[in-house]
């Protein structure tokens, strides 16, 4: 079973990009998933609401993969 942070990151990407959750894995790149700036803003907002973690959309893009976003949130979650 995946942790709540992984599940939430995958859920937000899935609902924003219209990609089935089961096809989103930690090693998938954001480019491969079609993440755009609007989706990145939505993801940042959701991470703030759910976990108290602030990240700018530019930071999300620099992370590059789903797994790196999860690692970032886990290291900063309140």
UniProtKB/TrEMBL annotation:
It comes from the Bacteria. It comes from Chitinophaga oryzae. This is Acyl carrier protein. Residues 3-77 form the Carrier domain. PROSITE patterns: CARRIER, PHOSPHOPANTETHEINE. GO terms for molecular function: phosphopantetheine binding. It holds the Pfam family PP-binding. Keywords: Phosphopantetheine, Phosphoprotein. Signal peptide: none annotated.
């Amino acid at each position: 079973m995946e942790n709540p942070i992984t599940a939430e990151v995958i859920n937000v990407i899935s609902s924003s990009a219209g990609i089935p959750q089961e096809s989103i894995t930690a090693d998938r790149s954001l480019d491969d998933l079609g993440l755009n700036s609007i989706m990145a803003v939505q993801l940042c907002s959701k991470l703030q609401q759910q976990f108290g973690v602030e990240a700018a959309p530019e930071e999300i893009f620099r992370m590059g993969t789903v797994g790196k976003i999860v690692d970032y949130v886990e290291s900063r979650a309140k």
